[in-house]
């Protein structure tokens, strides 16, 4: 049978949730991290550009494209910290993969859930290279939509099983703790940032605020910890005091984007940072010693979304968890697009 050229596989939110459950959330996070790691190790084969951001007073809408020469991918994503007060998500996303040879899309998928999964997998993967050996305790500051995904990725990839939670809204911490019941964590909710970082090997900051916030100050950060800074990902939106950055070994995804969006926007444009992909290939050193503070200045880069789209596409045939979307016009004679439109016209009622 000839392939239906008009049809593109579409993964809805419902199908994505079924897919995550069919695979198992922790296995999904581990396998996705494997795809991300494989793509980071072939970093030089990708087209790279800082994401294209459209800023407004309330938030940002971004397009994140990349290609490896065979497949092209992009994600549409927003960031609107005030949205949750109106019953909407801070971050929503969808994405596309396309065949470079024909330019035809081969996948359209929800990426709100997938972004949370890929962000968590990337964070845990970075920590696998950077966190102190044997790390078991993680503090999470900001207990919103991304938080449980972060916790589960660190459990699945590193064996983190003690969580310390803090949020300015205590109900967010209680919900996070409740959602993680049965996943094998020992959870402590803390009222203050000073308290939440006590005894933590890893500190994840994943707050949402459209401003330069100071979630962590220098005096709260002891030697040897790994900071996974996720929430500072836009110009004018950071979470860490600059003094912490000056004491840390800083690891980033793609410097031209991170210098605009990450914690390092607070530092001079030539401040030395290490690219994570080079740590993965062995070209650069990761953690230098057990007293070094390591900082993954995460902003989220297009290649992580590409890996996530690639991973989802690989699951489709096996699981059948997609719909066929009539997305592409496909006239019998390719140049007769208008003829196809004419033939679709319903005869006028007599
Ligand atoms: N780096 C990446 O790849 C990446 C990917 C996705 C999201 N993000 C960012 O992560 C952040 C969190 O996203 P989300 O979807 O979980 O948002 P969310 O709005 O669902 O949750 C954010 C939480 O942070 C809390 N918070 C705000 N200010 C705080 C403070 N000063 N101290 C403690 N808690 C505070 C809020 O009460 C809320 O519970 C956003 O800034 C988002 O842009 C980054």
CATH architecture of the largest domain: 3-Layer(aba) Sandwich
What general form does the structure show?
globular
Can you list the strand order of the major beta sheet? 9-8-7-10-12-16-14-15
What is the straight-line distance between the termini?
A: 39 Å
Largest sheet report: 8 strands, parallel
Relative helix content: 25-40%
Distinct helical segment count: 11
H/E series: EHHEEEEEHEHEHEHEEEEHEHEHEHEH
Q: What is the CATH homology-level superfamily of the largest domain?
A: NAD(P)-binding Rossmann-like Domain
Residue stretches low in confidence (pLDDT < 50, at least 5 long) are none
Look at the structure and give the CATH class of the largest domain.
Alpha Beta
Can you list the ligands bound to this structure? nicotinamide-adenine-dinucleotide
CATH topology of the largest domain: Rossmann fold
Organism: Labrys miyagiensis
Family: Belongs to the ornithine cyclodeaminase/mu-crystallin family.
Protein name: Ornithine cyclodeaminase
Pfam families: OCD_Mu_crystall (PF02423)
Structure, described:
The protein is of the alpha/beta class. It has 2 domains: 7-113 and 303-343, ornithine cyclodeaminase, domain 1 (2-Layer Sandwich), CATH 3.30.1780.10; 124-301, 3-Layer(aba) Sandwich (Rossmann fold), CATH 3.40.50. Helices cover 33% and strands 24% of the residues. The protein is built from 11 helices and 17 strands. The protein has helices spanning 13-23, 25-40, 112-130, 147-158, 170-179, 193-196, 242-247, 255-261, 276-281, 302-319, 337-343; strands spanning 7-11, 52-55, 60-67, 71-79, 93-99, 105-110, 137-141, 162-166, 186-189, 202-205, 212-216, 226-229, 238-240, 248-252, 274-275, 293-297, 323-326. The strands form 3 sheets. The protein has an 8-stranded parallel sheet. A 7-stranded mixed sheet has the order 2-3-4-5-6-1-17. It has a two-stranded parallel ribbon with strand order 11-13. A hairpin with a 5-residue loop joins strand 5 and strand 6. Helix 3 crosses helix 10 (302-319). The longest helix is centred in the middle third of the chain and has 19 residues, at 112-130. The radius of gyration is 22 Å and the shape is globular. The relative contact order is 0.18. Belongs to the ornithine cyclodeaminase/mu-crystallin family.
């Amino acid at each position: 049978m000839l392939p239906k050229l008009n049809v593109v596989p579409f993964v809805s939110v419902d199908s994505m949730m079924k897919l995550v459950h069919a695979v198992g959330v922790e296995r999904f996070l581990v396998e996705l991290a494997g795809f991300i790691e494989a793509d980071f190790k072939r970093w030089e084969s990708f087209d790279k550009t800082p994401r294209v951001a459209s800023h407004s007073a309330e938030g940002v809408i971004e397009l994140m494209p990349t290609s490896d020469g065979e497949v092209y991918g992009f994600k549409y994503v927003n960031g609107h910290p005030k949205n949750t007060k109106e019953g909407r998500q801070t971050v929503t996303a969808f994405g596309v993969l396309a065949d470079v040879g024909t330019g035809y899309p081969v996948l359209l998928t929800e990426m709100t859930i997938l972004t949370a999964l890929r962000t968590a997998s990337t964070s845990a993967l970075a920590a696998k290279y950077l966190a102190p050996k044997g790390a078991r305790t993680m503090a999470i500051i900001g207990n919103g939509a991304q938080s449980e995904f972060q916790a589960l990725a660190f459990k699945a990839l590193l064996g983190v099983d003690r969580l310390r939670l803090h949020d300015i809204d205590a109900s967010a911490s209680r919900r996070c703790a409740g959602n993680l019941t049965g996943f094998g964590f020992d959870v402590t909710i803390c009222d203050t940032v000073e308290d939440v970082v006590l005894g933590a090997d890893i500190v994840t900051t994943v707050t949402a605020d459209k401003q330069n916030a100071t979630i962590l100050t220098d005096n709260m950060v002891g030697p040897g910890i790994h900071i996974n800074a996720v929430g500072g990902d836009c110009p004018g939106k950071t979470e860490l005091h600059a003094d912490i950055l000056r004491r840390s070994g800083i690891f980033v995804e793609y410097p031209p984007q991170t210098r605009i969006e990450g914690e390092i926007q607070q530092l001079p444009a030539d401040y030395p940072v290490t690219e994570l992909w080079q740590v993965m290939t062995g070209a650069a050193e990761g953690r230098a010693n057990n007293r070094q503070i390591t900082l993954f200045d995460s902003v989220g880069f297009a290649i992580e979304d590409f890996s996530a789209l690639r991973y989802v596409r690989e699951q489709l045939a096996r699981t059948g968890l997609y719909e066929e979307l009539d997305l592409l016009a496909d006239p019998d004679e390719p140049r007769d697009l208008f003829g196809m439109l004419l033939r679709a016209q319903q005869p006028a009622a007599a």
